[in-house]
Every structure is written in C-alpha cells, then in structure tokens.
C-alpha cells in the first residue's frame, strides 16, 4: 500500500483544513466529469479556480503522487548510476511529481516547475514550503502555457505527468520532442486507460526516434507488441484514502487503485529488465501465472509451478509492474 510521506500529508492537511467539504465535493464531481468524459482543450483551464485546485489536491494529488513515485522507482532501479541534480516538471498542477522526484532521487538540488494555472501554482508553492526537501522547498515555479515546444531549462530529469491528455492533440508531439532536448531522462505518466496508453505509446515512439531509449516499463525500443484495441499496457498502485477524500468523494472505499501508463526514456546505454510483468499475477494453488513483455519474444504467458522451487518463490513475490525474471535471483 503506497503512503504519502509525512511532510506532504501534513502540508495537504494544513492547506485543506479550512476548505468546506460540501464545496470541495461539488468541485470533485465537476472534475471527475471532465476527466471521465474528456476535457475540451478549447475551454478554459481545468484548474481555473482556488476551489477546483483544492479539490484536485484533495482527491487526485495523493493518487498521482503514488503513480509517479512507482514509475520513477521502477526507472531508478534500472539506472543505478543516474543521480539527477536538476529537474523540470511540466504541467505540475499542485506539484505531485516535484515531491515524487525528490523522494526517489534525493540528489536533486534544483527544480523548475512549469504550470499554466495561477491558482495551482499558488497552492503548489504553499505545499512545497512545508517539504523536508530543499529541492522542493526552493523550487522555482513559473507560469507557462504550452502551445507548442516547451521552453524549459536544460535538466537531468524532465517529468510531465497526467498532462498530455489536456494538451490539444496537435501540440502533443512538439511538446514531447522539446522535453527530450537538453535532458538525460524524460518520464511521462498518463491515466491507465486505453486513451492514456495510446498517448504514452505515441510519445514513447517519438522519444525513441529522437535517439533516447526506453528505460521502463518496456524491455526494448521496438514497437509495443500489445495488439491495438485488444489490451493496453498499464499498472496500478493501491493507496489509502484520507478521511477528507472519503468525505468529498461520496460512497468510496477506504483505498483506491490508481491505474497509470508510463514511459521513462534516457540517453546512453544501460542495463534493461529482460522482461516486465504487465498484468496482475494470478496465484493458484502451487502455480503462478505471469503475463510478461519480453525483450526477445514479445508478450509471453509464463506459468511457474511449485516444482520450480526458487523460481516459484520469486514468482510469488513478484508484483504487477515488476521486472521478470527478478534482477537478482533465478533465471
Ligand atoms: C491532471 S493535472 C496534472 C497535475 C500534476 N502533473 C499531477 O500529476 O498531479 C494537469 C495539469 O496540466 C496543466 N496544463 C494543462 N494544459 C496545459 C498547458 N497548455 N500549459 C501548461 N500547463 C497545462 C493543468 O493546468 C494541470 O495543472
């Protein structure tokens, strides 16, 4: 179960302490409707008011934070020598990816945050002041409206999380290309829906064309082997819902599974996972079934039985999204 770090949780509690839960609840309904039915980029900003920003921070930020940490951790595992000093987050909202990157890479010293919505910048800054990380506290927040290539400083790490779907389709390719300029690693995260996955695959192919190679989740740079329209590559993080979340999003469980699609691509050679588990493993008596995207053979369904001893024990501990076979362990 993913947990918010103590400083972020305290900062959110403090920032939301005076918000009226009925007002937030109405804003949540509106935002959910926009995210579900599609956002018309010709309309005004999604996070256009202080109430909408507070509602986003209360019901979405913990989940986007958890998904981004998961995507970054899986990338960091495969890039043990990567210790970014500079980070740019594009379309930061209230700063989920700023906090997530500082958590995964404490080496980050300088953070630049680009966002279009002034109310989101104000809220994000207020949260960031409460961070234990100097990189988060001292981040430079800049108002930027993306309408083509993103004007950003050079950076070791560039993130853009849950943003592509809000950009007009004609702007996405230029925006993605510009993220790769003057950066070592680019990480994109989108909702784990068929449409979110399609946007990630398009962006991934552009990054590969530009000479970057995929760090995670794919174990190769070739075309995605998942047949279009039949399935989509996505992962999930389970997190506890806060008491406020349960109040403003009526009728929900005490936890949620945040589904996400992602790609991390970087310059230079590095080791890659031989394969990655792309569905929730199914455990039956004495048997574990894994769907694995492999470097050599595309998608494979592997069944591991108790008779395989150490391999079976490793399979039982393997999660959706983990490398397979594990980096250290049975082959
Ligand atoms: C769904 S929120 C994601 C926020 C944050 N990255 C996260 O993961 O929680 C999308 C963000 O992208 C920003 N955004 C959308 N279109 C943009 C544009 N054209 N230029 C700059 N920011 C944009 C929105 O204002 C919003 O803050």
From TrEMBL:
Tagged with keyword Membrane: no
Protein name, as recorded: Small ribosomal subunit Rsm22 family protein
Keywords: Iron, Iron-sulfur, Metal-binding, Transit peptide
The keyword Iron is annotated on this UniProt entry: yes
Matches recorded under Pfam families: Rsm22 (PF09243)
Alphabetized InterPro entries for the sequence: Mt_RNA_Methyltransferase (IPR052571), Ribosomal_Rsm22-like (IPR015324), SAM-dependent_MTases_sf (IPR029063)
